[in-house]
């Protein structure tokens, strides 16, 4: 069900030019995901090729996100910031708690393709199975395998 209005807090992702590719990739990867609103460049809008995604509201596994393509040179808003200086940082990551090893492996394999492992999947002091990676778009992800219910009771 699409959100009737954007929640008060959500992750906002600003891409250089591949927001739509990331949006399609992420929403196909997670269950209970959908694109709810898209704003595209209109014909004659300075700096933007017509039809380019400018802004979108979407959900991944029910969690709301917003994304944008940074305004290109000549576009309204380009003069407001030094867009070329901005990039994603591994210090800020999307955290995913996986219920099964299969889900963990599927998400890790898809997200790390054309990306890079920062902490490869392994058992760490704080988790039986964890990975930290940067995907092909530069977005950082931390994937954790939830402790089993049996282990949590003990």
Protein model, in words:
There is one protein chain. The chain has 154 residues and is α/β, with parallel strands linked by helices. The chain folds into two domains: 75 residues, Signal recognition particle alu RNA binding heterodimer, srp9/1; 61 residues, Signal recognition particle alu RNA binding heterodimer, srp9/1 (2-Layer Sandwich). Helix content is 18%, strand content 36%. It has a four-stranded mixed beta sheet with strand order 1-4-3-2, covered by helices on one side. Strands 5-8-7-6 form a four-stranded mixed beta sheet, with helices on one face. A hairpin with a 2-residue loop joins β6 and β7. The longest helix has 12 residues. The chain is elongated, with a radius of gyration of 18 Å.
How would you summarize what this structure contains?
This protein has 154 residues and is α/β, with parallel strands linked by helices. The protein is built from three helices and eight strands.
């Amino acid at each position: 069900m699409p959100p009737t209005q954007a929640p008060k807090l959500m992750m906002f992702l600003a891409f250089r030019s591949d927001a739509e590719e990331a949006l399609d990739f992420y929403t196909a990867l997670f269950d209970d995901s959908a694109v709810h609103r898209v704003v595209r460049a209109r014909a004659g809008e300075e700096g933007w090729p017509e039809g380019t995604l400018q802004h979108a509201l979407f959900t991944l596994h029910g969690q709301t996100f917003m994304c944008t393509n940074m305004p290109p040179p000549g576009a309204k808003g380009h003069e407001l910031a030094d867009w070329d200086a901005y990039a994603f940082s591994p210090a800020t990551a999307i955290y995913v708690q996986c219920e099964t090893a299969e889900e963990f492996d599927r998400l890790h394999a898809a997200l790390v393709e054309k990306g890079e492992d920062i902490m490869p999947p392994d058992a760490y002091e704080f988790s039986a199975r964890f990975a930290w990676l940067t995907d092909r778009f530069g977005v950082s992800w931390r994937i954790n395998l939830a402790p089993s219910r049996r282990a949590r009771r003990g």
